[in-house]
């Protein structure tokens, strides 16, 4: 089944060119199916690029999904046309009285900014608190994972001395956990962050199930026992060229970045990179939609209750 998105959303043309089945609102309204309601809080500057990346991963599921896009505030954007934001994004006030099956909170380029200095920190706190009562499962990606750990577990910001950038090998743990179904014992995934997620630190200070780690990148995937909060510290949604564009951007800003690890063939930026994480990304999102959202959520979202959720599969 397809994802359902607004008829004129730029991602619809991109996904159709990739032979991904996208159902526009005009057609979906004729079907008698209860789609999953998934809200995406997009914190990235280039919102059109980011929304397309996440929609691509959400599309690889037999479930019909009704997507809504949420912005954190109404400040003007330097990287996204105002018309696009006004046409396709909602403000929190417009959704706060509704329930959703899933919520995805994207990363943000705030790795070196202290939480208290993030201009929308209090607003983000309000949204995360709201999600406890209105969302079946929330997926926190990259910077949002660190923000979620701060707000849910009061963990302080932990920053690496150097930016972690590249594609890293990971090992799975708890191999029978629903989020890991179909995973190989090892897999590749991209990272681009300053945040530090030490397995030992999370084991000592949280009750999370730590599901995948890297000897270099630390914790990659973790979940609460009831699967209502899932933390992904990397970027499974990245396109093949996203790390390349970030590297070129940082070079242009005089930051002297290191070449992304295990990304360019022969570590030569003149060689086109190859996406080696695509299958893992699709599988992760399919598992989240099925086992953390669809299998847990009530059929009638108006009947949302903590009693719906179980800690064991």
Automatic annotation (TrEMBL):
Presence of the UniProt keyword Acyltransferase in the record: yes
Record's Gene3D superfamilies? 3.40.50.880
Q: Which residues bind substrate?
A: 163, 192, 249
| Family matches, as CDD domains | GATase1_HTS (cd03131)
Instruction: Give the pathway annotation.
Output: Amino-acid biosynthesis; L-methionine biosynthesis via de novo pathway; O-succinyl-L-homoserine from L-homoserine: step 1/1
Does the entry feature the keyword Amino-acid biosynthesis, yes or no?
yes
Task: Provide the catalytic activity annotation.
Answer: L-homoserine + succinyl-CoA = O-succinyl-L-homoserine + CoA
Enzyme Commission numbers on file: 2.3.1.46
Q: Where is this site: Important for acyl-CoA specificity?
A: 111
Q: What does this protein do?
A: Transfers a succinyl group from succinyl-CoA to L-homoserine, forming succinyl-L-homoserine.
What is the name of the protein in this document? Homoserine O-succinyltransferase
**UniProt organism field:** Vibrio aquimaris
Gene for this chain: metA
């Amino acid at each position: 089944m397809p994802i359902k998105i607004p008829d004129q959303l730029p991602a619809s043309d991109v996904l159709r060119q990739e032979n991904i089945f996208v159902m526009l609102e005009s057609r979906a309204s004729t079907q008698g199916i209860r789609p999953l309601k998934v809200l995406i809080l997009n914190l990235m500057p280039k919102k059109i690029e980011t929304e397309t990346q996440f929609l691509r991963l959400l599309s690889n599921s037999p479930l019909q999904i009704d997507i809504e896009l949420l912005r954190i505030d109404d400040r003007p954007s330097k990287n996204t046309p105002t018309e696009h934001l006004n046409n396709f994004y909602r403000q929190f006030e417009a959704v706060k009285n509704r329930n959703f099956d899933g919520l995805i909170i994207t990363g943000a380029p705030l790795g070196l900014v202290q939480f208290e200095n993030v201009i929308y920190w209090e607003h983000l706190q309000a949204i995360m608190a709201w999600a406890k009562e209105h969302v079946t499962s929330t997926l926190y990606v990259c910077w949002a994972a660190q923000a979620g750990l701060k707000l849910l577990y009061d963990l302080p910001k932990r920053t690496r001395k150097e930016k972690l950038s590249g594609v890293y090998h990971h090992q799975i743990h708890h191999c029978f956990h629903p989020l890991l179904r179909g995973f190989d014992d090892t897999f590749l995934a991209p990272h681009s962050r300053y945040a530090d997620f030490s397995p030992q630190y999370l084991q000592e200070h949280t009750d999370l199930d730590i599901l995948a780690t890297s000897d270099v990148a630390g914790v990659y995937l973790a979940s609460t026992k009831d699967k209502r909060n899932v933390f992904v510290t990397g970027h499974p949604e990245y396109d093949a060229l996203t790390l390349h564009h970030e590297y070129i951007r940082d070079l242009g800003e005089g930051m002297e970045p290191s070449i992304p690890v295990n990304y360019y063939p022969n570590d030569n930026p003149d060689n086109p990179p190859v996406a080696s994480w695509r299958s893992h990304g699709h599988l992760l999102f399919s598992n989240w939609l099925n086992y953390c959202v669809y299998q847990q959520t009530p059929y009638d979202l108006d009947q949302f209750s903590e009693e719906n959720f179980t800690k064991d599969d």
